TrEMBL record, chain A:
This protein's GO CC annotations: plasma membrane
Biological classification of the source: Bacteria, Pseudomonadati, Pseudomonadota, Alphaproteobacteria, Hyphomicrobiales
Any single GO BP term: transmembrane transport
Family that this chain belongs to: Belongs to the binding-protein-dependent transport system permease family. CysTW subfamily.
Residue ranges of domain ABC transmembrane type-1 in the record: 62-254
InterPro entries: Bact_Polyamine_Transport, MetI-like, MetI-like_sf
Topology of the protein relative to the lipid bilayer: Multi-pass membrane protein
Protein name: ABC transporter permease subunit
Entry's localization field: Cell membrane
Organism encoding this protein: Stappia sediminis
Sorted UniProt keywords: Cell membrane, Membrane, Transmembrane, Transmembrane helix, Transport
Superkingdom as given in the UniProt entry: Bacteria
Primary subcellular site in the record, as a coarse category: membrane
Transmembrane segments: 7-32, 68-89, 101-125, 131-150, 176-198, 233-254
UniProtKB/TrEMBL annotation, chain B:
Keyword entries, A-Z: Cell membrane, Membrane, Transmembrane, Transmembrane helix, Transport
Protein name: ABC transporter permease subunit
Organism: Stappia sediminis
Localization, UniProt: Cell membrane
CDD domains: TM_PBP2 (cd06261)
Transmembrane regions listed in the UniProt entry: 26-48, 104-124, 136-156, 186-208, 229-254, 285-306
């Protein structure tokens, strides 16, 4: 009935994506600006990247952030995957509504509330604040994102393959690692990446829960941004944007490839059978 | 024939097995449950408790504090010392209730603007040729993954008085003198719409893409004009996506801190910003806890509605 997209749809796509991308493109372009004045173009230069690499405080903050993000994403992925399994598989149990409530609420809970409440908890149990408290805070909210991502992967799961493995005498624990995990792996990997970038990105919760010696990169960027826009910060932002972009695109290509291979294997198995 | 009995017996055994959860099954539930109880739920009770305390020059900066060594008597005195004074203070100082009202107003307006911009975008994506869709989806997801702080920061350089937007508008002669946008509420609206657009587009696109096109064809065969078919069929069927998307924008936007702080000005009153300065600048932990409790009470209704909707959606999928 329809021949290609209509002019209206095309216009809304072009305008929508221009709105989403123009600010980031401008930010990247002006990170290569020679002039210190961020809004006056004075020729191409990479000097702000050199400046960035000589800024020891910035590098220290980046290192803290990378460690927090890696640790919290890994723990959050384990906890979130278990939580997703519980949500999809465990049926009814006492306090299920509370459990699913605690999974969905952090997705929309304002960060100031999460940050303040966690800080007051750490104070109440007399925990010195620093790397570990930020890590725990990030794990807590990102495990909920992981649970939601893995849950959607589990929803379309064919349980007969698991049952087949169990019927052949495979213990439940081994069945999980040999059968279930490989199938839901794309969801688990996506969950880990999401948890990693959420942690990389967070300013508010980290500001509440951090202590001396554990300044994260967003906190460092924020304190410099308050003093004004500088090309050096543009350079840092460009590097972060590049890392996330490459990571997300690479992950989606790998997933697509694996999916294609799986489909091919299924077809081959069906042809042989 | 001999084999048929065994699978039959298995089918009968399976539900019984399911009903009696193994130790491993309970452990599986207990681990994430305990984590969330301790790190997500318990802190709210502590916030509530501290909102009833009074500020003190001490570490931690509030009174009374629990001391187990004082035993039952100490606990009773503790409860006696609690008061709702901080809440009374919140109603007396106009700053707080103005902040709440203006947060809800700014969040609601931004959500409406996001919907107006996001709906055509999601619709265009869902109606695009099937071969384009994965790429388009990727293009929406990418900014969603990109740092929030960076995306807000990017707008400072654009909206400044000598910024790129004003330069562009001046050079094409639309305006004679630079517009002041940065550090006004207008900049806050732009920031919220821009930052939360993917949150609205993604669930909306998911429902629009699943929409059965034969319904629209049937309507058009029966002589229904396209715009009427859009209002009578597309809009009602996409409503779950619209609701989910609006919740995902509205709820976090009410408590937003980074956007009003970096893009807004002194006229911008938002409760996230008020809480932040109460905590970090005034170091008044009890009052900021009371601010948080009230904010949570305001958001409880939309959060519960959002959860029910999510749960129904996930049960429908499964």
């Amino acid at each position: 009935m329809r021949k290609g997209p209509s002019w209206f749809n095309l216009t809304s796509l072009v305008l929508g994506f221009a709105f989403l991308y123009l600010p980031i493109v401008l930010l990247v372009v002006y990170s290569f600006n020679e002039s210190r004045l961020v809004t006056v173009w004075a020729g191409f230069s990479t000097k702000w990247y050199g400046e960035m690499l000589r800024n020891q405080q910035l590098l220290d903050a980046a290192w803290v952030t990378a460690r927090v993000a890696f640790t919290s994403a890994t723990i959050a992925t384990v906890l979130g995957t278990i939580a997703a399994l519980v949500l999809v598989r465990s049926g009814r149990f006492l306090g299920r509504t509370l459990f699913s409530g605690m999974i969905y609420a952090p997705l929309v809970m304002p960060e100031v509330i999460l940050g303040l409440s966690l800080l007051l908890l750490f104070v109440a149990v007399d925990q010195t604040r620093g790397f570990w408290t930020v890590m725990i805070a990030h794990t807590t909210f990102s495990m909920c994102y992981v649970a939601v991502v893995v849950q959607s992967r589990l929803a379309g799961f064919d349980r007969s393959v698991e049952e087949a493995a169990m019927d052949l005498g495979c213990p439940p624990f081994k069945t999980f690692f040999a059968v279930t995990l490989p199938i839901i792996l794309p969801g688990v990997v996506a969950g880990w990446m999401l948890a990693f970038t959420l942690s990389l990105d967070d300013l508010v919760i980290a500001s509440f829960t951090t202590g001396p010696g554990a300044t994260t990169l967003p906190m460092k960027i924020y304190s410099q941004v308050r003093l004004g826009v500088t090309p050096e910060i543009n350079a840092v932002c460009t590097v972060l944007v590049a890392i996330v972009t490459v990571g997300v695109i690479a992950a989606s290509l790998v997933t697509k490839q694996q999916e294609a291979r799986r489909q091919r294997d299924i077809r081959r198995a069906e042809a042989q059978g | 024939m001999v084999d048929t009995a065994a699978p039959g017996a298995d089918v009968e055994a399976a539900p019984a097995l399911k009903r009696k959860r193994s130790l491993g099954g309970w452990l599986l539930i207990a681990i994430p449950y305990a984590w969330l109880l301790f790190f997500f739920l318990a802190p709210f009770f502590i916030v509530f408790k501290i909102s009833l305390s009074e500020i003190a020059v001490a570490i931690p900066p509030y009174l009374p504090t629990f001391d187990l060594a004082e035993g039952w008597q100490g606990l009773r005195e503790n409860f006696a010392a609690f008061s709702f004074e901080n809440y009374i203070w919140l109603t007396q100082d106009a700053l707080y209730w103005k902040s709440y009202l203006s947060s809800v107003w700014i969040a609601a307006t931004s959500t409406a603007i996001t919907l107006v911009i996001g709906y055509p975008l999601a619709y265009g994506m869902a109606r695009a040729p099937a071969a384009w869709r994965p790429t388009l989806l990727m293009l929406v997801i990418l900014p969603f993954w990109t740092s929030f702080l960076i995306r807000v920061y990017a707008w400072i350089g654009i909206l400044k008085n000598e910024g790129l937007l004003n330069q562009a508008l001046l050079s094409i002669g639309v305006i004679d003198e630079p517009l002041t946008i940065l550090n006004t509420n207008a900049a806050v609206y732009i920031g919220i719409v821009y930052s939360y657009l993917p949150f609205l587009v993604l669930p909306l696109y998911a429902t629009l893409e699943k929409l059965d096109e034969s319904l629209l064809e049937a309507a058009s065969d029966l002589g229904c004009p396209p715009w009427k078919a859009f209002w009578k069929i597309t809009v009602p069927l996409s409503l779950p996506g619209v609701i989910a998307g609006c919740f995902l924008v509205f709820i976090p936007a009410v408590g937003e801190f980074v956007i009003p702080d970096l893009l807004g000005g002194s006229e911008t009153l938002m409760i996230g910003k008020t809480l932040w300065s109460e905590f970090f600048a005034n170091r008044d932990w009890p009052v900021s806890s009371a601010v948080a409790v009230i904010l949570l009470l305001i958001l409880v209704v939309p959060i519960v509605l959002f959860q029910n909707q999510q749960q129904r959606a996930s049960e429908k999928d499964a």
